[in-house]
């Protein structure tokens, strides 16, 4: 290997500030088990087990919500009316934007690389799909038509 000028005995750069209030935060780049993780916000859930469980429940509910938003039929296009009204299009767009926002928040939580977060995110999607997307719970005569359903 060729000698590179200026690289003799150099160590990686270190943080020159030695403030006692500064905490060392390690960002994982591989999956790991454990409750000491940062999920979505700096310092959250911290090192307390109860807060970690709360964070897992939060991620589960968000992924469940994504499936509900993906499969709810509050606004259906009415094939007899052409393209539909502007208000229906705006409501559909708002629902789509909300679904995408929540899905990205779940994705960012999974990017904490905590295996527990990954498991509850997948479980939320699976259980949400089971309830809302699989069609198991839909009765043949159950045609509830909410307001603005046929725009």
TrEMBL record:
Topology with respect to the bilayer: Multi-pass membrane protein
Regions crossing the membrane: 50-69, 90-111
GO cellular component, one term: membrane
Location of this chain's protein in the cell: Membrane
Coarse class of the protein's main subcellular location: membrane
InterPro entries for the chain: Cop_transporter
Keyword Membrane: yes
One Pfam match: Ctr
Keyword Protease recorded: no
Record-level Gene Ontology MF annotations: copper ion transmembrane transporter activity
Keywords from the named record: Copper, Copper transport, Ion transport, Membrane, Transmembrane, Transmembrane helix, Transport
Family: Belongs to the copper transporter (Ctr) (TC 1.A.56) family. SLC31A subfamily.
PANTHER family recorded: COPPER TRANSPORTER 3, SOLUTE CARRIER FAMILY 31 COPPER TRANSPORTERS
Protein name in UniProt: Copper transport protein
The organism of origin for this protein: Penstemon smallii
Higher taxonomy: Eukaryota, Viridiplantae, Streptophyta, Embryophyta, Tracheophyta
